[in-house]
Design goal:
Blueprint lengths: L3 H51 L1 E2 L2 E2 L3 H7 L4 H32 L3 H12 L6 H11 L8 H6 L5 H4 L5 H26 L3 H9 L4 H12 L1 H16 L3 H9 L10 H10 L5 H26 L6
Antiparallel strand pairs: 1-2
Helix pairs in contact: 1-14, 2-14, 3-8, 3-11, 4-8, 5-12, 11-14, 13-14
Length: 307
């Protein structure tokens, strides 16, 4: 009996961690179940239905006919070009400016400045997309804008000149950066705080200045976060809709109604054509391209690699 008692005690101790791990696993599934249900209802099922619509017509399987029809639409490739230019400018400028600003904020060692700046970064993101664009309608009109002097330096004397089609990718980039970059700066700031102080101290001992430390140590250690930001920004940029839609209404047609792919899909589905199958084909093409680009950033950035 005395010899059996320690063995029974060890079994009880072994069972406790197992039961605790099971409870933690159950809690984890419980917390993530809400997201899983929403993802299924508002993500997977609509995507499957869009795929079904893109391959059928009046309930009959037509293969790739809807895709061929959309690719032959004279409005499709100009919309692709518009979105591609915007996404390229948006993603590159976002990555560069966010990383640089995060490094600057992190380098400032004054507590009140960094906390105040972080709070200010969050404010633009509190505006809904349409509300933010309405604010920019006011800022882009030289007749009432508080930055009319700046607009005048670029030769813009009227709202129509400001929102001319060649200027739209830059305008949409500025609006998107103003709205969403602040949150990314805070995320990058937090990632910089997680870099080991021992590594930073070793860099200082080796004689690395701020620029070399940022280039050879901080930015490489931010690689996964930068890849994550690029993936999310691609998803955001490829779904361009609200900004050109509101500008089109405000400019009375100067900004075309089919400027972006989402606008074109909307027009095809709810316009005179009433072609939901063609609209679904555009959605699937957009999804495939966005997923391919996202996969590129995921693998190049080592997003799922373990340190």
């Amino acid at each position: 009996m005395p010899a059996a008692a320690p063995a029974m005690g060890r079994q009880r101790v072994a069972k406790r961690p197992r039961s605790r791990n099971r409870a933690q696993t159950l809690i984890g599934y419980l917390f993530s179940s809400g997201y899983g249900v929403l993802l299924l209802v508002f993500g997977v099922l609509p995507m499957a239905y869009a795929l079904y619509l893109s391959l059928t017509k009046a309930g009959q399987f037509v293969g790739l006919d809807n895709f061929v029809k959309i690719l032959g639409d004279f409005r499709f490739f100009p919309a692709v070009q518009h979105v591609a230019i915007f996404v390229a400018i948006w993603v590159v400028s976002l990555i560069v400016l966010v990383v640089v600003l995060a490094l600057i904020v992190h380098a400032v060692r004054v507590r009140w400045l960094s906390s105040t700046t972080r709070f200010l970064f969050y404010i633009p993101g509190a505006f809904a997309g349409s509300a933010g664009v309405m604010l920019w309608l006011f800022l882009l009109d030289p007749s009432v804008s508080p930055v009319s002097v700046v607009l005048g330096q670029f030769g813009f004397t009227s709202f129509i000149q400001t929102v001319a089609q060649p200027n739209l990718p830059v305008i949409f980039t500025v609006i998107a950066f103003w709205t969403g970059a602040g949150g990314w700066i805070i995320i990058m700031f937090g990632a910089l705080n997680n870099i080991s102080q021992e590594i930073m101290e070793a860099a200082r001992i080796d004689g690395a200045g701020p620029i070399k430390t940022a280039w050879y140590i901080q930015i490489p250690l931010l690689r996964k976060w930068i890849a994550y930001m690029a993936v999310i920004s691609l998803a955001f940029g490829s779904q361009l809709f609200v900004e050109p839609k509101i500008l089109s209404l405000a400019s009375r047609g100067v900004v075309p109604k089919d400027y972006s792919l989402n606008q074109l899909a909307y027009l095809i589905a709810f316009g005179p054509q009433g072609d939901f199958n063609g609209s679904a084909a555009i959605s699937i093409l957009l999804l495939v391209v966005a997923m391919a680009l996202a996969a590129f950033f995921v693998f190049k950035g080592g997003l799922f690699e373990r340190d």
